[in-house]
Amino acid sequence: MKKDNPDKIDNPVNETDVSRRSFIKIAGLGLGLAAGATGCDGRPAGGDGWMPAQYEGKGHFPAQVRGRVPIDPKNVSICRDDQKCILCGQCAEVCEKVEAVMGNYELPLKNDIPCIGCGQCTLWCPTGAIVETSGIEKMLKALEDPSVHVVVQTAPSTRVALGEEFGLPIGTNVEGRQVAALKALGVNTVFDTNFAADMTIMEEATELVGRITGKIKGPTPQFTSCCPGWVKFCEYYYPELIPNLSSARSPMGMLSPLIKTYYAKQNNIEPKSIFSVAIMPCTAKKFEAARPEMNNAGVKLGDESIRDTDLVLTTRELAQLMKMKNINLMDLKEAEYDKVMSQYSGGGAIFGVTGGVMEAAVRTAYCLISGEKEPPKLVYNLEPIRGLKGIKSAELDVPKVGKVRVAVVAGMENAKEILKRVKDGSEQYHFIEFMACPGGCISGGGQPKSSLPPSDKARTARINALYTIDEKTTLRLCHENPELKALYKDYLGEPNGHLAHELLHTHEYHDRSMNLVAKK
Ligand code: SF4
Question: Contacts for 291-297 with beta carbons within 8 Å, 24 or more apart?
């Protein structure tokens, strides 16, 4: 086959393109069998509502050639090896139809090539041409340098997916073995991002209560801000709604500055010698970590060159690193997270699920508003906002404020729909959770490719694993987390207080609409 010539790819009538189409049709016959086999319960293999049309006919994969997503060479989340690309168009289809990015802007573009970094294209790409930008070399360098103190945090969803890379059934919880693997790699300290998910709820729910009661200036509905893919989407397409975004940073964005301030101080470690790494299910987190303003610790410590998060590795990259170092997950005994910032509630555990952030927030907001110690039983299993539907909503009677209406959205095409309703006033909500990935972070762009195309079956198995963690724990309310309470008492002060704002919040959302003209 001829080597790719990008100049010719975009020309629909040149001969090279025509012969490439023929090749893909031939290649598609073989691939179609594998793709067709991944369907579940007779439903489309990609899951209801998420299905690029090309997968719908067995044996006809790919049925058409539609080009591919453009990727900026400076993109910090994803990159593509052109020699592996077969121009099947799966990346373009998921980007356009599920994430509402490609094809949802006019050409020509200005400045950058719009990408929200969600990495769904990496999961759909059948040849592995599109992958995350690798952070493995940087990680190896840090681990090999004895003067560097490596601190790692692990996101809620990685523990229910890493095992798939080592042959375990989809959705197996390998929390303890993941910690053991990191220790075996030479990591000094391992914290749990679940702890910071509890903290995010403390800050976000406090902000929500403030907005609802009028004590904090800010419009409702309040929007979650923990998904960097969604935040960037909002910055591109809905800059006028930026004031609705919660100022609370994501769990990663909160834990990282605390590692370089609170943890460093407690343990007499020079903050500059700490290399802070986040293991995430997400390629967009690489972008979030690189945002210039993600240096709250540096600002606090008077050295703005200090970054809050030095490196983000995806679940896939962690598995790759382990394999490079001959560390087999199956040979490891479970280990425990390090103390001080690792205890977590069931509410924190379900952050990785679409609807999970909202359910955790509702549990805490109910208690904060009503002053009651226990929320009603139904918020421990808020059925209307559970499951894989792209748009869900619920209504709850809360003492003192009456009905509180919330919504949950996964996939940015669905975000467009709900924002239309919010803007034209046909729906009114107090709080909306947005996640870029279908099913939430459990199906993030950095998770193992357990099926091609990604299926609802795999998503459901991971989702159930996180709900099981929640159900099995006696501590289910984020604001009841003892380690978190101690952190506020000993260091942070009040939620939404001065220091909490300095370290855990951001007001640096940027209008990126100058980069594109959104299609109506
Ligand atoms: Fe990342 Fe989760 Fe957002 Fe997907 S839904 S882009 S994994 S934060």
Answer: 291/508, 292/508, 293/506, 293/508, 294/253, 294/256, 294/506, 296/257, 296/502, 296/503, 296/504, 296/506, 297/256, 297/257, 297/258, 297/259, 297/260, 297/261, 297/271, 297/503
Atom 1, ligand 1: residue with shortest CA distance: 282
**CA-to-CA dists, residue 373 to 84, 137, 205, 376, 397, angstroms:** 56, 48, 15, 10, 16
| pLDDT average, residue stretch 398-427 | 94
pLDDT confidence bin for 155, thresholds 50/70/90: very high
pLDDT tops 50 at residue 23: no
Nearest to 461, CA basis, from 218, 234, 173, 237? 173
Q: Is 246 noted as a catalytic residue in this protein?
A: yes
Q: Is 349 in the pocket of ligand 1 (CB under 6 A)?
A: no
Which residue type, as a one-letter code, is found at position 364? T
204 part of the active site: yes
Helix (H) or strand (E) holding 265: helix 264-266
Tens digits of residue pLDDT in 158-192: 999 999 999 999 999 999 999 999 999 999 999 99
Q: Which atom of ligand 1 is nearest to the CA of 435?
A: 5
User: Is the C-beta atom of 227 inside 6 A of ligand 1?
Assistant: yes
**pLDDT tens digits for range 466-475:** 999 999 999 9
Residue 504 tokens read as 């855990």
pLDDT at 344 over 90: yes
CA dihedral sign of residues 426, 428, 434, 439: negative
In contact, 385 and 363? CB cutoff 8 Å: no
Q: Is 116 in the pocket of ligand 1 (CB under 6 A)?
A: no
CA distance 23 to 86: 9
Catalytic residue among 165, 175, 207, 433: 207
CA of residue 453 to ligand 1 center, whole Å = 18
Structure tokens of 297?
A: 């610790």
Secondary element (H or E) of residue 154: strand 149-154
State the helix-helix crossing angle for 193-213 and 356-370, rounded to 10 degrees: 50
Q: What is the mean pLDDT of residues 335-347?
A: 95
CA of 441 to the centre of ligand 1 (A): 5
Mutate to test the pocket of ligand 1, among 95, 441, 462 (most ligand atoms within 8 A of CB): 441
State the Cα–Cα distance between residues 330 and 367, nearest whole angstrom.
42
Question: pTM for the whole thing?
Answer: 0.88
Cα dihedral: 425, 430, 433, 434 (round 10): 30
The percentage of residues in the chain with a pLDDT greater than 90, rounded to a whole number, is 78
- Residue 226 among the catalytic residues: yes
What is the structure's pLDDT at 507?
87
Active-site option among 285, 286, 392, 457: 285
The secondary structure of the chain in percent helix, strand, coil, rounded to multiples of 5, reads 45, 10, 45
DSSP string computed for 212-234: HHTSS---SSEE----HHHHHHH
